[in-house]
Amino acid sequence: METLLMLLRRLFGMALVVVIATFLLSCLMWLLPGDPALLLAPGTPAGALQAIRHQVGLDRGVFGYYWKWLTDMLHGDFGQYYLNGGTRSVTEVIKRTLPVSMQLIVYAQVVALTFSIPLGLLTAYKEGSRFDRWTSSVLFTLVSFPAFALALIMSLIFAVKLGWVDPIGYVKPSEDLFKHLKLMILPVASLAVGLTSSYTRLLRNDVIATLKEDYVTMAASKGISNKRVLWKHVFRPSSTTLLTSAALNMGGLIGGTIIVETIFVIPGIGYEIFYSIGARQIIAMQTLIALVSFAYVFFNTTVDLITNITDPRTRERRV
Amino acid sequence: MSPLLKLEDLNVSFATPRGDLRAVKNVNIELNQGESLGVVGESGSGKTVLSRATMGLLPSTATRTGKILYKGEDISQLPRDEVRQLWGTGMAMIFQDPMTALNPVRRIGTQLTESLTVRLGMNKKDAREKAIELMKRVRIPDPEGMLRKFPYQLSGGMRQRIMIAIAVSCSPEMLFADEPTTALDVTVQAQVLELLTELRKEFNMGMILVTHDLGVVAGHTDKIAVMYAGDVVEYAPTRQLFNNMKMPYTEALLKSIPRLETPTGTRLPVIEGRLPDPTKNEPGCSFANRCPYATDKCRTETPPLTDGGNQHFYRCWFPIGGGK
Amino acid sequence: MSDTAVAPTTESPAVAIKKVRKKRPIGFYIAASWIGLVLFLGLFGWILPTPKWDASFFDSLGVGPFSKGHILGTTQDGYDEFAGLVNGARISIFVSFIAVTVGGGIGSFIGITSAYFRGTYDKIVVTFFNILLSIPNLVLSLALLSVLAYSDENHPSSTNRRVVVLIISLIVVIIPILGRIGRGATLQWSSREFVLASKSMGTKDFMIIRKHVLPNVAPALLAIGFLAIGSVIIVEGSLAILGIGVPGGASWGSMLANGRGNLEFSPWEVYCPALCIAFTVISCNWFGDYVRTALDQREAKI
Predict the structure, then answer these.
(1) pLDDT tens digits for C252-286?
(2) Which of A195-204, C106-115, C201-210 has the lowest mean pLDDT?
(3) Residue-number span of the structural domain to which A79 is assigned
(4) Which single residue of A299, B41, C13, C241 could bond A247 by disulfide (Cβ 3.0 to 4.6 Å)?
(5) For range A193-201, the mean pLDDT
(6) C1 pLDDT more than 50
(7) Do A214 and A84 share a structural domain?
(8) pLDDT higher than threshold 80 for residue A310
(9) Minimal CA separation from C193 to chain A, in Å
(10) Which residue, B242, B272, B269, B271, is CA-closest to B258?
(11) How high is the pLDDT of residue A312?
């Protein structure tokens, strides 16, 4: 009962954040100089313009416009792109681009976690050793290495100079899996390097704290191997921050993909956001940003709830 | 027959920014199978470090010298992997605070069966049955339901009994109990101690009971070692020690225990002053600046560990009741 | 005694002692020197005998580094790379300094006051921060830029306007970051005894904030401020790559964006500004981290 109430409160807060965020975006659109309808569909004859204005709700003032957009969204109508006199459904575009971005994000996350979990455990376990100091310094340097600089430098080295991979492009996994993976290497690497460093650092800090706990000494005193102590007794209680941050990044990474998708010419949702902002497709832009911030807030809340349920310590605190 | 455990000149020091901290100095102790030794001292006296050092559970900043003879074999120079073979099955430890010594995110069942499956190679079903049996032995109600619970769902005394069950699960021959009752309510302290003594007799284990409370060790030990600032200052069979106390420090410790017969409102005597700085190595008796009987000799010359007969050793120039 | 309980590690005592007697890491000195260099180039770069940064040299288009007259070469359009970098340093310092001080100032003010006064005001502030944080940095500044610095044939927008809007959008990015830090730190400090004591003596709230809260919160803000400079430089660079950074190829990001197309012919157009951006961001992070570590030690001593 209490959990249900908390869940409802969180869901409400979540919806509120997304609603206000998108409403502010609507207001922003209203600030644009000139006729919004004309900006949305440049070169449209005056008669057709009125139709668009009505279709989008631009004739109802900022609140009416926002309300129409919101209710349409909730009914599953994500709006249209108005391009060169024609239209394109935003839903279609999302269906086409979201899977591509998700591939990119999921690969980057998997790669980052695969490297950072053992590295984090090991550096913490050997805290202060030469291995730890070197790894930690290198990771600290890489965590702040801008993704676009990394992407460009890697593409310079591996694509232009060495010619190992193609510098740009995207192939669906269903078409040619090998080529798909090969093309994904550089974009995934430029996203994953920063993630790996930040995850390793988070995990290392938490593991160092956990290693000081009595229950770790207790587990060691059972005579089980160090490896078992680390994986079974240390990793789980230390992984909360890591998992939270990994889930939060699911939303945040969509922002990160904008730049990587632009550099490597990958038809993902990040690129689409950039495109719709550039082309002032306010409806599409509002919908896409709503999606991103919803994803962010959704993952944020879900992770909170899951850690509440899986980590008995937080349960204890609540009781 | 060689004793179960024998410490010869055990020294432990920690590297700190202010220099080496000598936590345990030249300790010699002997313990037979089935026997119980109480290690008593106030916090900072080195008693916890002593028990952890014996087992080998020290942080990396510590250095240890001296011999640790376990069943006649020196284990102090063994590589860690071989020492680890002894943990759980040969020597086991019960920790001070059952709140922090049980992993909060793992179920009681997994924590209890871990040693059984990993160290003894039992299958899951057998380990489960053995775990239930162990929990019955330490008088846990509804042991089957307990398997699925998390530590936070249990009371302090219950957790401590679970920890005891974990410690004895692989039938060790040597049990270190590090302040097993300090974190518990007064009412459950007695039963936990009683349980420990019972198990010790049942399994014929050697036990080192570390505590700051002389009252705790009185009924549950065969021998007592009193520690002060890393030194063993008095070492004697329990009866002998209580009947014929030699060290002023031991006397002070005993006086600071509240008693039922003291009238309410009486101020408990406290030991004035503080432990000497463990990073400095000053001459003289380490207790001199707090001792009511101290003389100039105590402040300049370090007293040796004197054999007072009847297996009674003390480190004092002017023992209570005179020397031998 | 439980603080001595650490799981066994294979580390030798010697290493541990070294760890205990920790000095300033080498990275600190490297970071400090690089920041010093960038500051020098940005503030006094004009005294160096470099070619003009915005002049095109038609006799040497796309020459490599270390050629006569152009120490880091020129772009395919004949602009001197080194002069561009020096000018870029000036722009970067200008943009990030303004964005972080103004954004940090506003953010910290809101964060500190909200944590101090709590109540409805605090709830509104928290929601406001959450909203800003729920939209990725880059998307937020993209949206702001594309609207506020909107330009087409009928509504031309000046270079100055675009720079101002760029800075505003970066400020908006910074506000919730430092605001949250300020709020968190204030929550911790404002319940301490000396604050309560001061309150009970009837000291005015803003006086308490100035005398008791601010001095304690400031180091944390400073540490994060350095990290924020890094973020600002990254966001500016990203915006430039998307074609809406500081106009005219003036900033490091814009140089990078312009050079992207010439990756095959003159890679130095890419790696010079890319490395400048990376080194600066990394140095800011090292610096911020150093400040935070020093702060932690101070905390530990208390």
Answers:
(1) 888 888 888 777 777 888 888 888 888 898 888 88
(2) C201-210
(3) 2-90
(4) A299
(5) 90
(6) no
(7) no
(8) no
(9) 24
(10) B269
(11) 58
pLDDT at position C83 over 90 = no
**Can you tell me the distance from the alpha carbon of C120 to that of C187, in angstroms, rounded to the nearest whole number?**
15
Q: Minimal Cα–Cα distance from C296 to chain B, Å?
A: 17
Asked if A259 and C16 come within 8 Å (Cβ–Cβ), the reply is: no
Task: Select from B101, B115, B170 the Cβ nearest to the Cβ of A214.
Answer: B101
> Above 70 in pLDDT, residue A254?
yes
**Contact at CB, B43 and C1, closer than 8 angstroms:** yes
Q: What is the pLDDT of residues C27-79, one digit of tens each?
A: 788 888 988 888 888 888 777 777 776 766 667 666 677 666 666 777 777 67
Which residue carries 């940005």 as its tokens?
C42
Containing C108, the helix (H) or strand (E) segment is helix C81-117
Residue ranges per structural domain of chain C: 29-300
State which amino acid sits at residue C158.
S
Q: How far is B57 from chain C (nearest CA, A)?
A: 6
Which of B87, B103, B118 has the CB atom closest to A237's CB atom? B103
Ranges in chain B, pLDDT < 50 = none
Q: Dig out the tokens for C173 from the structure.
A: 């990015």
- Chain A positions in Cβ-Cβ contact with residue B102 (cut-off 8 Å): 215, 218
pLDDT value, residue A111: 96
DSSP conformational letter for B127 = H
Nearest to A274 among C8, C135, C142 (CB): C142
The reply to whether ipTM tops 0.95 is no
Please say which residue of A35, A61, A90 terminates a domain: A90
Q: How near does any CA of chain C get to the CA of B248, in Å?
A: 25
Q: Give the integer Cα–Cα distance in Å for A10 and A13.
A: 5
**Where is the domain boundary, A55, A90, A125?**
A90
Residue A34, burial from CB neighbour count under 10 angstroms (0-12, 13-18, 19+): exposed
Is residue A134 domain-shared with residue A77, that is, in the same domain? no
How far apart, in whole angstroms, are the C-alpha atoms of residue A24 and residue A15? 14
Q: Using one digit for the tens of pLDDT, what is the confidence trace for B202-227?
A: 989 999 999 888 888 888 899 999 99
Question: Is A172 in the same domain as A280?
Answer: yes
DSSP B96: S
Helix (H), strand (E) at residue A38: helix A36-40
CB B211 within 8 A of CB B181: yes
Q: Do C278 and A33 touch (CB under 8 A)?
A: no
Residue of B43, B52, B63 with shortest CB distance to C13:
B63
> May I ask the CATH architecture of the domain C29-300?
Orthogonal Bundle (1.10)
Neighbouring chains of B at 3+ CB pairs within 8 Å?
A: A, C
Residues of chain B contacting residue A311, judged by C-beta atoms under 8 Å apart:
104-105
What is the chain C residue with the closest CA to B42? C1
- B153-201: pLDDT as tens digits: 888 888 888 999 999 898 899 999 988 888 777 788 888 888 999 999 9
Give yes or no for A229 touching C (CB within 8 A): yes
Closest CB to A219 among B85, B103, B152 = B103
The chain A residues in contact with chain B (CB within 8 A) are: 213-215, 217-225, 228, 232-233, 236-237, 310-313, 315-316
CATH number for the segment(s) B5-90+170-259+268-312 = 3.40.50.300
Q: Which residues of chain C lie closer than 8 angstroms to B48, CB-CB?
A: 1, 4
3 state DSSP class of B175: strand
Residue C21: closest CA among chain B residues belongs to which residue? Answer: B17
CA–CA min distance A146, chain B (Å): 37
Which amino acid makes up residue B274?
R
Q: How many CB atoms lie within 10 A of CB B300?
A: 12
Question: Residues C65-68: contacts with CB within 8 Å, 24+ apart?
Answer: C65/C268
Which of B85, B97, B105 to mutate against chain A (most A CBs within 10 Å)? B105
What total number of domains does chain A contain? 2
pLDDT at res. B246:
86
Pair A115, A228 in one domain? yes
Compare CB distances from C9 to B14, B48, B60 and report the shortest one's residue: B60
Confidence bin at A119 (pLDDT 50/70/90): very high
